[in-house]
Design goal:
The chain is an alpha+beta fold. It contains 7 helices and 26 strands.
């Protein structure tokens, strides 16, 4: 009897232990199921997040920044530098500037966007200075007389031409073309005489102007003040270096009398101009003239037969060769100008690829075929 009771107790205990184990297995199974479900849910959530992120990235890639792309940019037509819409539309003014030694230092010319240097007669050169923001000019000059080929340059830039007198050929050209111009001989609104210059340099070196007077003269003449005409220069959007020969010093010998020299300023990445063995200075601010670009455009030049003053004929039309210097390098280029009245285009040496200038101020030498150029 005792054995039977003991066996019965043992059987009941075993059953309880077995039931307890089964319950634990069930609970473990339930926990595992919950963990698996949680893991699956988490994985699905992660996938959905990844898809959402990919979709957002794709949308951003397909839809560029509207603010950046839709904001129009405007550029100064003479320098290629970014500016305001108002300034980008301004029709430039071109002023004839005296460049003989007796008339220096000049005033106001450091504010020019483009300066041309061309021979006149007797080995001297004159400067043709183009200004976009001419309304703000301080005292500027001294202003000298016109030659017909300078009018070609003014027309190439659709500029209002400012001069004080002119050669017979210049007056014939102005009359034939009806070029918008202001001449100090017959129209005094934009001009006045500097008493200091008259006393110290002479009457012929004393004609001056200011931005205020230029604006008054243009208004009185009723000339157009905006321009969308094509300009001779095309610019890179930013500074671009090119392969070329070293040109940290450039020397242009126009004649026995007129020699322009340029030293490259590495820090500011501009060329500093000198003449008459001294820095070329604007006495308004004592700044040396500086340029991002130097263009040397070579063309035939010679004395006009029978001209009693030895005036020149400058044949800057057709096709020709030249040089372009920027950022301490120089390379050969070509130019093309259909006629005296047209604008012109600059090309790489191949004569087909249009030359792109670096943004900034430009010096242009209309250089004689017998001139001497040196660089190193």
């Amino acid at each position: 009897m005792k054995k039977t009771v003991a066996l019965l107790i043992l059987i009941i205990f075993a059953a309880m232990v077995f039931a307890s184990c089964e319950d634990k297995k069930g609970e473990d199974a339930k926990e595992e199921t919950k963990e698996e479900q949680t893991a699956e849910t988490s994985a699905e959530t992660e996938k959905e997040d990844e898809k959402a992120q990919e979709a957002e990235e794709t949308e951003n890639a397909e839809e560029p920044d509207e603010t950046e792309d839709d904001t129009p940019k405007f550029y100064n037509k003479l320098t290629g530098l970014e500016t305001t819409e108002e300034i980008s539309k301004i029709r430039p003014v071109g002023i004839m500037i005296n460049n003989v030694k007796q008339a220096i230092p000049q005033q106001g010319i450091s504010l020019a966007d483009v300066i041309y240097e061309v021979l006149a007669e007797g080995g001297i050169t004159r400067l043709f200075c183009l200004f976009t923001e001419y309304a703000d000019l301080p005292e500027t000059g001294s202003i000298r007389s016109s030659r017909d080929y300078y009018i070609d340059l003014a027309d190439a830039h659709d500029a209002i031409y400012v001069h004080f007198g002119g050669s017979p050929a210049a007056y014939d050209t102005l009359s034939a073309r009806r070029t918008d111009n202001m001449d100090g001989i017959s129209f005094d609104t934009p001009f006045y005489r500097s008493e200091w210059r008259r006393k110290n340099m002479g009457q012929e070196h004393s004609a001056m102007t200011t931005g205020e007077k230029l604006v008054a003269g243009i208004e009185k003449k009723g000339y157009r003040t905006e321009s969308d005409a094509r300009q001779p220069f095309t610019f890179n959007k930013e500074d671009v270096s090119f392969d070329g020969e070293n040109a940290e010093y450039v020397k242009l010998k126009f004649s026995f009398y007129a020699i322009s020299e340029f030293d490259y300023d590495k820090e500011n990445k501009v060329y500093l101009k000198s003449q008459y063995d001294a820095p070329h200075i604007d006495s308004n601010n004592d700044e040396q003239l500086s340029f991002k670009n130097i263009l040397v455009l070579i063309c035939p030049q010679g004395v006009v037969p029978g001209d009693d003053k030895g005036r020149l004929s400058v044949k800057f039309y057709g096709n020709g060769k030249g040089y372009y210097a920027s950022d301490g390098k120089i390379k050969s280029i070509t130019w093309s100008k259909e006629s005296r009245t047209s604008d012109y285009t600059l090309y790489e040496e191949d004569g087909e690829t249009e030359l792109l200038l670096n943004p900034g101020k430009t010096y242009v030498a209309i250089f004689p075929t017998n001139g001497e150029i040196d660089y190193k």
